[in-house]
Amino acid sequence: MKIKPIIAGNWKMHKSPSEGKTFISSIKNLLLDLKHVSVIFAPPFTGLFDMDVMPPFYSAAQNCHWEEKGAFTGEISVSMIQDCGAEYVILGHSERRHVFSESDNWINKKVKAVLAGELKPILCIGETLDQRNAMETDLVLKSQLELGLSGVNSLENIVIAYEPVWAIGTGVTADKNQVESAHATVRNILNELFPKSENIHVLYGGSVNPGNAEELIQVPGVNGFLIGGASLDVESFTSITQIVENIQ
Ligand code: PGA
User: Fold this and answer.
1) Active site residue 75
2) Is the Cβ–Cβ distance between 115 and 81 less than 8 Å?
3) Which of 73, 133, 233, 243 is most buried, most CB within 10 Å of its CB?
C-alpha cells in the first residue's frame, strides 16, 4: 500500500496567533488542490486554538504533559489540545530532549497519554553528531524507539520522525545515503517491535528546503518531512509541499 506523504511544519517558538492565521490562510490559498499529501501545521500552543484547518490540512501541538490536569505550571494536557481541534502532538523533538532535558521515560509517558486521548503522536528520534561519529546511530535509534514506544500496543496512530540532531537548524542536511540507511534501520527496528508496522509513516527532518526536497522525498522509506526553518516562510513551505505532491 502506498503511504500518503505528510508535510509537517514545526514552527517552534515563532509566529503569534494572528501571524499564524494569516500564514495558514495564505498557504491554503496557494495549495487549493492537494490530493496526494497531508499538511500539518504545528504552531506554539497560543496559536492552536481556533485554527482554521480541514483535511488535507491538520494541526499539531509541539509538546504536552502526560497528566490530565493538576499543579503543573506551564504545562498543557492532551484534552486541552484535543479541545483546540488538533489531531497530532509532536513528542521527543530534539530540542525537548537536548535543551529541556526530556528523558525517554517522559517521552514514553507522553506518547501513551496522547494515544489514550485519541490523538496521534509524532515521535521524533535521532542521533547527535558525537553519537554518529562513534558509530552509535543504530543503537540510539533502537533505544529511543524501544523506550519511547514501551507499553504501546500498536503503531496504527503513530508517526515517527527521524531527525539527526546535527542536521536540525544547521543547514546541513543528511545526504541521501545517510537518510536511506537510517530509515531502513528505523523500519527494521519497528518491524521487530511491531510485526505489522509496514504502513506507518517515517518522516525525515533536518534542514529540508525547496532545494533538497525533491531528492529527499524519493529516498526509499521516506514518507514525508518534518520541517522547521523552511516551514515559516509561505514560499518555501508551499514549494516543498508542491514538490512532494507532484512526485506522487
Ligand atoms: P529545520 O528543523 O528544518 O530547521 O532543520 C527541523 C525540526 O526541528 O523539526
Assistant:
1) no
2) no
3) 243
- The domain 36-247: what is its CATH number? 3.20.20.70
Tell me if 192 sits within 8 A of 230, measured CB to CB.
no
Q: What are phi and psi of 29, to 5 degrees?
A: -70, -25
* Per annotation, catalytic residue among 65, 93, 183, 201: 93
162-199 exposure pattern, b = at least 16 Cβ within 10 A, e = fewer: bbbbbbbeeeebbebebbbebbebbbebbeeebeebee
Residue 183 a catalytic site member: no
215 CB-side CA count, 13 A: 13
70 C-alpha to ligand 1 centroid (Å): 32
Which ligand 1 atom lies nearest to the CA of residue 229?
Answer: 4
For residues 169 and 111, give the distance between their C-alpha atoms in angstroms, rounded to a whole number. Answer: 25
pTM of the model: 0.97
Q: What is the mean pLDDT of residues 149-154?
A: 96
> pLDDT grade, residue 50 (50/70/90)?
confident
Mean pLDDT over the full length of the chain: 96
| Number of C-beta neighbours around residue 19 at 10 A | 14
Kindly list the domain boundaries of the chain, sorted by start residue: 36-247
Mean pLDDT throughout 43-55?
Answer: 94
Question: 213 and 246 in contact (C-beta within 8 Å)?
Answer: no
